[in-house]
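Sample intake sheet
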Amino acid sequence: MRTMHQWLDEYSDSHRHPANKAIHWLCVPAILFSVLGLLWLIPVPEFAALSPWLNWATLLMALAIVYYLVLAPALAGGMLLVAVVMFSALYWLDTALTFPLWRLLAGVFVIAWIGQFIGHEIEGKKPSFFKDLQFLLIGPAWLMADFYKRLGINPVSSTSHER
């Protein structure tokens, strides 16, 4: 099993160009938001309809948080906070928009992926997820790790998986 440090290092290898990094800072959160939003809109079984917060998006993100928790607990905490903010925004948008939310989310998804591929064209390297789909989960963690580093926080502490 790779450590979070190894995942982040490998992800960084194809994200060195400043323009690609800047594009990723915009597009990775936009993709995450749009995917969570589209999952948010998929109807849930009747037993889960007790709460607007219990849906496919929250289930997927809960699994992702567990994945991050195993690899780097500090990053899991940051990603949990990001998830809460995104879910709050989705809840608000779902009730406030005068047009179907899926239209906005689909547009964001397409535009953000175009941006990602432009970034990788500038970089001259393929997106990491072409090598391993787990990199789709590492992208948001890579941004969170960079944010932590800017705050002077070690994003990947010495856990049993890091030794």
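Comment: The radius of gyration is 16 Å. The chain has a mean pLDDT of 91.
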